[in-house]
């Protein structure tokens, strides 16, 4: 039991060390310091379809402030970096200044999405998801934005920017009575192409919920609606 625990601890420490080493090596190439980065939101992932490469999302502070009540306000530059895992050298990168803001809507998470975004026979995109949540209990709010990137001739290009892939909001009395709406979308690649990239079929499920108090309970009723729309590549990005 003790040996198993020590082996597990060693593997964890090794994995953590490798993650930190990747970040340090990349920051050095970018001429950035660790204290310039929001480490809580930093993330990285090996590309499952090209395991020699990893994607790093480095949120660099442009503004980082805290008010007298302890609320944080920050603006982040988005450094999206693809590296060679063996050498840790940067292959390509995308830098967007003032990309993300956390204020009344709190930026709570950034993740790398390696779903099957096959834009054509030879081009697969990866996604960056950015999560926001509101801080009001009687008026809950949540949103996730999805951006897609491709590696093209040694450059990293954004082909979809901040698509609202999920959204939720509502208003209630914090006990029972209220109305809520939740929207979730998924992408399917179409057989039809425009400008050499497949159209993206967007399937969206919208759930509206009404909650009503009764004498001894709280009754919720859902109304579900499904919608389908399309994103088309205009030669530069999907719209």
Write a brief caption for the model.
The protein has 239 residues and is mainly beta. It has one helix spanning 2-30; strands at residues 43-46, 53-66, 72-84, 90-102, 106-118, 124-133, 141-152, 155-172, 178-194, 197-213, 218-231.
Structure description:
The chain is mainly beta. The chain has 1 helix and 11 strands; from the N terminus they run αβββββββββββ. It has one helix spanning 2-30; strands at residues 43-46, 53-66, 72-84, 90-102, 106-118, 124-133, 141-152, 155-172, 178-194, 197-213, 218-231. The protein has a 7-stranded antiparallel β-sheet with strand order 5-6-7-8-9-10-11, with no helix packed on it. A 4-stranded antiparallel β-sheet has the order 1-2-3-4, with helices on one face. β1 (43-46) and β2 (53-66) form a beta hairpin. 18% of the residues are buried. Mean pLDDT is 92; it is low at 5-19.
